[in-house]
Structure formats: C-alpha cells, structure tokens
Specification:
This protein has about 230 residues and is an all-alpha fold. It has 8 helices and no strands. About 65% of the residues lie in helices and about 0% in strands.
Length: about 230
C-alpha cells in the first residue's frame, strides 16, 4: 500500500507542471484567445511550479498552490487500483486530461473542444491497442455501443439546455472507458453520473437561499410606503 501511494504522489508531482501549463492556457472565458503567455509580463508559460506562479513576475497563473499536484496524485492512485490490464494507458490518458478539464471547468465554466477531442481520440486509440494486446478485439464493439449511447444521451441533454456543449464529447470518451468493463459497470457509471448531476443542481439551488439568510415576515408597511401614503 505505501509503495503504491508513494508512487502515486511522485507521478502527481512529475505530471503537474505541464498540466498546470495546460490549465493556464485553456482557462479563459468563452470568446477570448487562449492564454499562451503570462498576462502580466508576457513570458511564455508551458510549465508551472507547484506554487502556481509565473517564473518571471511571480504572478498567479491557473490553479492554486498544491491543488493540481494533489488531484493528479489521487487520480494516479485511482488508476493504479482500477487498471488490471492493458487498458491502463487509456485510463491514465483520461485521468490526465480529466484533471485539466476539471480545473478549467471549475474556473471558467467551460469544457474546451480541443481538450475533449484530444481526450476522445486518445481513449479510442489506446483502447484499440489494449483490445488487440489483450486478444479481445470484440470488446471494442461494446465500448463503441456504450460510447454512442452515453454520448447521445448527453447530446439530448445539451439540446434541452440541461448541460453545456462540451459535455457530450466528454460522454463519448467516458462511455468508451465504461464499456471496457461491461454493461453493468456502464449502467452503474451512468446512474452515478446522473445522480451526481442531480445532487449538484439541488446544491446550487440551495446555496443562494442559505447565503441570503432567513427571511423575516413583514410586520407592516415600510417607512417608504408610509411616507408615500401620507401616514
């Protein structure tokens, strides 16, 4: 257990600098150009230290200090325990880009199509290689069917404006990964995704009410209303 955790932490530290660069590059509002350089000093930024600051002017870029490293280590640990065969590379690819997509979505509420397409293409190629290496090319048909089902379902949700336009391409990639593990896992994963989405919507509706505080019942007309009525 300890060696696996130590290896996951090491992987998180090693992959975090380029992941931070990608987060800073893609975490811009819709309609603005990608951020290829520090907006304060103009220095090109492709790798970032765990502090999340520009190496030139020390300005804050992208995610907060230590956050990407912690999430990347957790993803590496999850991949190490979930992958029991040649699909480990597909899971690792999805995990790495998933970290970037998660932080970008958290900052600017969008899932860039370039990242989604890279995720989908990488998962498709690596699952194909894994199926051939494992001697099970037939599993690709199940992966394709699950990917189409999940992607189509999320596309309907996009048309209904329940999800953003970047969610459906992400569904194709995640559906393909779930399909590798069988129909029961795919259905369970889809149910968990729908449940988490519903809980998130409930939380978003409840948060403003809590922040507004308890509403007090009016005991009578306000001072402004009394003045307008001559009272």
């Amino acid at each position: 257990m300890v060696p696996v955790v130590a290896a996951a932490v090491l992987v998180g530290l090693l992959v975090a600098p380029p992941l931070r660069g990608l987060i800073a590059y893609f975490a811009v509002p819709e309609g603005e150009p990608w951020c290829g350089a520090c907006p304060l000093c103009g220095r090109a930024v492709r790798l970032l230290a765990p502090t999340g600051r520009c190496p030139g002017c020390r300005g804050r870029l992208g995610a907060g200090a230590g956050t990407v490293e912690a999430v990347a280590a957790a993803v590496a640990l999850a991949v190490a325990y979930a992958a029991d065969g040649p699909q480990v590379m597909a899971l690792a690819w999805a995990g790495l880009l998933g970290v970037v997509l998660g932080f970008v979505d958290g900052r600017v509420r969008r899932l860039p199509h370039l990242l989604n397409l890279a995720l989908l293409a990488g998962v498709a190629v690596l699952l194909g290689v894994a199926a051939l290496a494992d001697g099970r090319p037939g599993v690709l048909l199940r992966c394709l069917l699950v990917a189409l089902a999940v992607g189509a379902l999320l596309e309907l949700a996009v048309w209904a404006r329940a999800l953003g336009p970047g969610d459906s391409p992400l569904g194709f990639a995640l559906g393909g990964l779930l399909g590798w593990y069988g129909w029961s896992v795919a259905l369970g994963g889809l149910f968990a995704a729908c449940l988490s989405r519903g809980l998130g919507d409930v939380y978003k509706r409840q948060v403003p009410e809590r922040c507004d505080g308890p509403r007090r019942r009016r005991a009578g007309p306000t001072l402004k209303e009394r003045r307008a009525g001559g009272g």
